[in-house]
Design brief:
Helices cover 12% and strands 25% of the residues. The protein contains 8 helices and 42 strands. The strands form 12 sheets. A 5-stranded parallel β-sheet has the order 1-2-3-7-9. The protein is globular and about 75 Å long. The relative contact order is 0.05.
Length: 619
Amino acid sequence: MILFLFTHSNNTIMKPNFSFRLLTLSVLFLYICFGASNLYAENAKSKHITTEAGKLASLISSSDKFTIESLTITGDLNGDDILFLREMTGRDFNGNATDGKLGELDLSNANIVAGGSPYYKQYFNYSTEANTIGEHMFENSTITKIILPKTVTIIKGNSFIASSKLEDITIPENVTSIGDLAFKGCSSLKEFSFPKVQKIAGEVLSGCANLLIVHIPSTVTSIDYMAFANCNKLSEIRSAVEDAPSIGYNAFQNVPMQETKVYVPQGCANIYKIANGWSNFTNIIEEGDDDAPFVANLTQAGTLSSLVGNKKYAIKDLIVSGPLNGDDILCIREMAGRDVNGLETSGNLVNLIMPTATIVEGGSPYYYNYSEGLTTKGNTFSNYFFAKCKLEHIILPTSLKLIEGGAFSNCWALVDEIDIPEGVTRIGEYAFEACTQVKTFNLPSTLIDGTGTGYKKDAIGSNAFYGCHALTSISIPENVTKILGSTFQDNFELKEIDLPSTITLIDGYAFSNCQKLQDLRISATTPPTVRYGAFSGVSTSSCTIHVPVGTSSLYKDADGWMDFSNIVEDIETNIKNIDIPVDVEANIYTINGMKVSHLQKGINIVKMADGTTRKVVIK
């Protein structure tokens, strides 16, 4: 969507005035016609449905059925519903192709129940069973990302076979059985974590040609025939089993055993090195032997690649300081899974600690956006800086001033909490779009309008936090005046919002589909302008609007606010107590990478027992 803005100062004389007004009205008409339709089209591609068994088809129109690309479902699903989902994901009752385009499917709050018609026929009919992903249920589908129901306990054979677009699957912990060939030929899978099964079934991941990492839980006792056959890019097997599981016929056929690293529990390496089937692996490593972060202290920009050397794609935890230019950012991108063209690498970097690093100009482009080479700018995370990287945790430079468009877009692995440092004045369009696992963004008080370039002058750009499904609360600091279009759209877990006294505008779809929103606290004494769809999908009967004393009548009479049933005058402070842990049973490092026995004054990097990394500040 392109929006042309025509402005003039009060001192400018524009003649003829009628022509200017006509031009302005014409442009506005075009924007309404085409801009609004584009907004509608984008919104129509994503839906959140609450249903009952057998009712899904009645809740999605025939015009939407084959256009929806992202779908979240709450409620019970029987055979009729699964067949409808199959058709949306590219396959009909007989396994023939449909026009379905559904890629992302969130069933975490759905339940699969028995009943309804069969969902598939091949020689005989297949019907749903309670809490079970049935045979052939999503075979050869268009699904790219799926979160299975929390209640599922069984995944039967062939359930996702030949779903070559599947990149990411979340399997609940209570699954105890996965059948033969369940994920055979899922060639886009990069990482797979088995739940607490006893047996890894035959051919379960065979033909997953791009699989890089496999996690095997402590419950596994055997690995059946050809389980990982033709997984020829498998670089890492992480086994929590102390007594090496038995290996079936050709379980690791065509796996590069001279290159693949096998991580095993402490004290168990020798058991694996002599075990049948495992002894063929050259690199069997005990967990913890290479857990210390890699420390790179740069004195000259452009030298990171030479410092990491041949460990580049093996490093998981990186502490980096000093000046970083385009060459260094490209090196980090490659370490974290993306090259200069945005293609996947075999990098394993998940924890990036860089509070004392400084972004400087210079070096080669770190990313090519089509034919445009993007280069670094001083104290700026520029466009698409770490887009689609596999980073799980990051501590940002304290010198950072700007976060530009798409800097962390589609960083699906980022989890828990992101601290944006004081000094950052702008967060650009789509900056954290689809960071689906981040629960908290701590925004700095330094955000302010007018610090961007060109037309990008708002403190928080449109779509900046679009699709951050796990975000539970957000507090917007003073000086921010606008929440632009779709900024927090599809934040399904968002329950609390704090808006400052300076806010004047809430733009179209800003909080659309924030279906769990309970409390919106707003300190503005004049009700902000609310544009079309800003709160679509928000319950106006259960969400409470908290406003300054003496202003409730203004809000109750204002467009966009009068729809809310509960408007109360009880503004609370946004300041919350922060508990700083003082006794942590984990590995503790200074920001220079030195391991210490206890927390030091200042910034500490704490590597927890579960592998996660935290920043702990002791004052």
